[in-house]
Design a protein that fits this description.
The complex is a heterodimer. By secondary structure, chain A is of the alpha+beta class. Chain A has helices at 42-52, 62-71, 108-121, 132-147, 153-165, 179-184, 187-200, 213-223, 271-282, 288-296, 325-340, 346-361, 367-379, 386-395, 398-407, and strands at 4-11, 14-20, 26-36, 76-84, 87-97, 125-126, 129-130, 202-209, 247-253, 258-265, 300-308, 313-320, 409-418. Chain A has two domains: 4-223, Cytochrome Bc1 Complex, Chain A, domain 1 (2-Layer Sandwich); 247-418, Cytochrome Bc1 Complex, Chain A, domain 1 (2-Layer Sandwich), CATH 3.30.830. A six-stranded mixed sheet of chain A has the order 1-2-8-3-5-4, with helices on both faces. A five-stranded mixed sheet of chain A has the order 9-13-10-12-11, with helices on both faces. Chain A has a two-stranded antiparallel ribbon with strand order 6-7. The longest helix of chain A is centred in the N-terminal third of the chain and has 16 residues, at 132-147. By secondary structure, chain B is α+β, with helices and mostly antiparallel strands. Chain B is globular and about 60 Å long. Chain B starts with a strand and ends in a 10-residue tail after the last strand. Classes of the chains: A alpha+beta, B alpha+beta.
């Protein structure tokens, strides 16, 4: 499938990505700020997108901004904060109907994009800092988020496990920091981080859809004028070191079911081989983990593997009865070794390639997915289409899969288990 | 083969899909999405967790079955006598899945290639049950773990506690997966009984959207569907009084701050009336507690709610309808009181008509945007068919909603005597009457 995609650097470290596509009823735009960070900044960095998305200088209250979004046919404005590789990424995403679906020929797309940019570049500022009332509300909300992380037992277990798996690495940090960091956050510091992000981060801008030319021009003119630093030290790929001995940690909690997280660290050189091997190990419904840990031994409802590309780490996760813990750990380990030893059929490999291909092709059917696809491609230093990546998958051999699996060694076994 | 066929067209953008009444008794809906890569197919039956009591033309008395059996059956259908369904899908590259809700069980796949082969797999395995004592015992272990996973979810607990407050008899209050104890009572015989009752093509629907060929879909249906007699199923749920069971339920849980669900029990609707009332109620709720409302912004400013605050019109089946407001708060009871006060104020002072127009326009925008997703289109087809409307009736119903209907909704839907609150409080507090 052909994609009308264009990318250009409009200022040092600022890239504009344009995807023209007439198939959809809606358009999409995003602005991502990518910056190296130290863990002490996590709370401040997580805070900024929240306050920028509730108001701006032209729509100074939540109600006014929300009313404006509703009047633009429920245009959406969302944000994200993630730690990715050694970087902190804050994202702003807007979506709206295409202009020709509007009742009265309104310029919905351009208005929505301008609204998003206003939120990013023209916040409501009082005496050189963010609106103090909103600052207080959102600071408390950040603290509440940290307090309520225990509500989601699966996410909580992964968060705790991450701290052990990636100890002393940027990726071990909770994206929102700690409660102490959040409590200590000042309005001045938050505003400083906002300005630092604006002027020092690398910026990835995407506009996608139909009738987007005016919006693309506006984005280019606006963001090419930002003050720019010298080259940033943006590092995505930073292999996580394997511990000298497997670290086993059990945390007791008020839970009904034990959450198990296992981490393997590898040394593979080809991301697509890693992805295919992970899928075969625990990423699809015919994977080794699903067929053996769940279906054959009936130890769990779900047992899956997830590949952390930037850290060369394979995370296995499951929920099981405490009494079955040892059996489950042994079986998971056995299945990874089985792949390394070539204990899989050519049909298994081919079918996994087919399933992955289907999933990758589905990126063509969503503007958001296409935008994110190219973002990830550029981090890898490539610009493949989904079809080109599918070709790469089909060229991977069973020997490459075995070799890849063989590089993964058990690093951490973490459990969140019921108090006895 | 002779079909009863109808083309359903969206008058606004010209989109259209085809409805076919297949000679086997199955309703088939096909939506070709030009230029799209993926295909999503859903094969569903009007059988969910609320259908634990039923009879057919052959039965004198209602049969009662264990809680969670519809969900259990969904799991078991993936295992054929000779092979695992996921392995069959793997050969076509499709991602297969299934879900059981309160009122339906749906088997689906999503793919970018070989949709024809995957459709044959879907139609074939759902029509081919195979249950043994051994396979039932195996699944009891796996689903037992799924149930335990749910027991660690405080939001789910709060939601079901609210339904237990609002409903006296209605099985909507029972968790879809049942309990470890209830699924222990499931046998192959019970599964066959439920299967033969509800998995009848006259009670089912196939919805498929995306990159496809209409004639090919119908040809596959002709070859794969096995006609059966219509059993004239009666799956009416037990009678539910207008009154609620209790107006408050509190439970401890390991959570960081209290979680709440506030509900208003309303009259049930069906068909187009359900669609219309869902819009009326949701627009009204947006005006009362939505993110542009005075109350929402006051509660946010006072730190009584956070961004997890939300609302929904909930109808798990067409035999129930309620409004739910949920979120986290250090003081859920005050939130409830403030909502009640605001409703009374708005009953006196009236709603804002300009705001109503903006919200109606926003709903139109959401609907238009949602048609971009092949998956959503397929889901719309199935859900609309089960409700008894066309997909584009959603736009029609939205256009028809008047300000007066929304204004009257304050009286129609918000009856304080039929409201309840469920609160989950952090552990180590006293149970029962809580101090949240």
């Amino acid at each position: 499938m052909n994609i009308d995609y264009e990318r250009r650097e409009i200022a040092r470290g600022v890239y504009l990505n344009i995807i023209k596509d007439k198939r959809f009823n809606s358009n999409f735009a995003s602005v991502l700020f990518i910056t190296p960070f130290s863990k002490e900044e996590a709370s401040a960095r997580a805070f900024v997108p929240g306050i920028l998305s509730v108001s701006n200088a032209n729509y100074p209250t939540r109600a006014e901004l929300n009313r404006k979004l509703l009047s633009l046919y429920n245009a959406s404005l969302n944000t994200s904060s993630v730690v990715s590789g050694n970087n902190y990424i804050t994202g702003y995403y807007a979506s709206c109907i295409i202009d020709k679906n509007a009742f009265d020929g309104e310029n919905v797309t351009e208005e929505t994009v301008r609204l998003m940019v206003d939120c990013i570049l023209n916040p409501k500022v009082v005496d050189g800092v963010f609106d103090p009332k909103e600052f207080a509300i959102l600071k408390q909300e950040l603290i509440d988020t940290i307090d309520t992380e225990i509500n989601n037992k699966r996410g909580y277990a992964l968060t705790l496990a991450n701290e052990i798996i990636f100890r002393d690495e940027p990726f071990s940090v909770r994206y929102y920091g700690t409660k102490a960091m959040a409590q200590a956050l000042t309005n001045e510091r938050a505003y400083e981080i906002y300005l630092d992000t604006l002027h020092n981060a690398d910026i990835e801008i995407t506009i996608a859809g139909d009738g987007i030319e005016a919006s693309a021009k506006f984005l280019e003119e606006t963001f090419s004028e930002l003050e720019r630093p010298e080259d940033n030290n943006i590092i995505f790929y930073d292999k996580s070191p394997l511990k000298a001995e497997v670290e086993t940690v059990d945390v007791k909690g008020d839970v009904q079911q034990t959450r198990l997280v296992m981490a393997y660290k590898g040394d593979s050189k080809n991301v697509y081989v890693d992805k295919l091997m992970t899928a075969m190990f625990g990423g699809v419904a015919t994977s080794k983990l699903f067929m053996n840990v769940r279906e054959k031994l009936q130890l769990c409802y779900s047992c899956s593997a997830n590949y952390k590309e930037y850290n060369n780490t394979l995370i296995v996760e499951s929920g099981i009865d405490a009494k079955n813990l040892d059996v489950a750990i042994k079986e998971i380990d056995k299945q990874l070794k089985a792949i390394a030893q070539g204990d899989f059929t050519d049909e298994e490999l081919y079918n996994t390639k087919l399933m992955i291909s289907g999933a990758f092709k589905s990126n063509y059917d969503s503007l958001f997915a296409l935008g994110m696809w190219y973002d990830v491609q550029h981090r890898r230093g490539t610009c493949y289409t989904p079809d080109e990546v599918i070709e790469i998958f089909h060229s991977i051999t069973r020997e490459q899969i075995m070799e890849c699996a063989g590089t993964y060694k058990l690093d951490t076994v973490f459990t969140l288990s019921p108090e006895v | 083969m002779g079909y009863e066929k109808r083309i359903v067209t969206n008058e606004i953008n010209g989109d259209s899909y085809i409805y076919v009444k297949h000679p086997s008794g199955l309703d088939i809906l096909i939506w070709k999405k030009e230029g799209f890569t993926t295909t999503e197919a859903l094969f569903g039956t009007k059988y969910g967790s609320v259908n634990n009591r039923f009879k057919t033309v052959d039965d004198d008395e209602y049969i009662e079955v264990p809680e969670g059996i519809a969900h259990f059956l969904e799991h078991k259908l993936f295992e054929n006598e000779d092979t695992d369904v996921f392995e069959l899908y793997a050969q076509t590259g499709a991602m297969g899945n299934a879900y059981t809700s309160f009122a339906e069980t749906v088997y689906l796949f999503n793919c970018s290639e070989n949709y024809d082969k995957s459709l044959r797999i879907l139609l074939s395995f759902v029509q081919k049950p195979y249950f043994t004592d051994e396979s039932v015992a195996k699944e009891q272990g796996i689903i037992g773990q799924e149930i335990k996973m749910g027991l660690d979810n405080p939001e789910r607990k709060s939601f079901f506690n609210l339904l237990n407050c609002l409903y006296v008899n209605h099985p909507i209050k029972i968790d879809i997966a049942g309990t470890v104890e209830s699924i222990a009572k499931i046998t192959p015989e019970l599964l066959y009984k439920c299967y033969n009752t509800f998995y009848n093509l006259h009670n089912m629907c196939l919805a498929i959207a995306g990159n496809l060929d209409v004639d090919e879909v119908l040809k596959i249906c002709d070859e794969e569907l096995i006609p059966v007699a219509d059993y004239k199923l009666d799956a009416s749920v037990v009678e539910e009084p207008e009154e609620i069971a209790c107006d408050e339920m509190c439970e401890e849980f390991p959570v960081g701050m209290p979680i709440f669900n506030i509900g208003y029990k309303c009259k049930a609707y069906s068909g187009y009336e359900l669609l219309k009332n869902e819009y009326i109620a949701s627009i009204m709720m947006q005006l009362v507690v939505g993110n542009t409302s005075k109350l929402y912004n006051d509660l946010t400013d006072e730190g009584l709610i956070n961004s997890n605050f939300g609302f929904e019109v909930f109808w798990g089946s067409d035999s129930m309808f309620c409004l739910i407001i949920s979120g986290e708060s250090k003081d859920p009871k005050t939130v409830r009181r403030r909502i009640e006060e605001e409703i009374e104020r708005l009953k006196r002072d009236g709603l804002d008509k300009d705001e109503f127009e903006i919200i109606r326009k926003s709903r139109y925008g959401s609907l238009v945007k949602s048609f971009d997703s092949v998956d959503t289109c397929a889901e719309y087809l199935l859900n609309a068919q089960f409700v008894g409307v066309d997909v584009f009736d959603m736009q029609k119903a939205l256009q028809e909603v008047t300000f007066d209907e929304v204004q009257n909704g304050l009286y129609k839907f918000f009856d304080k005597s039929k409201s309840a609150i469920s609160i989950i409080v952090p552990s180590r507090k006293q149970k029962g009457e809580c101090d949240a």
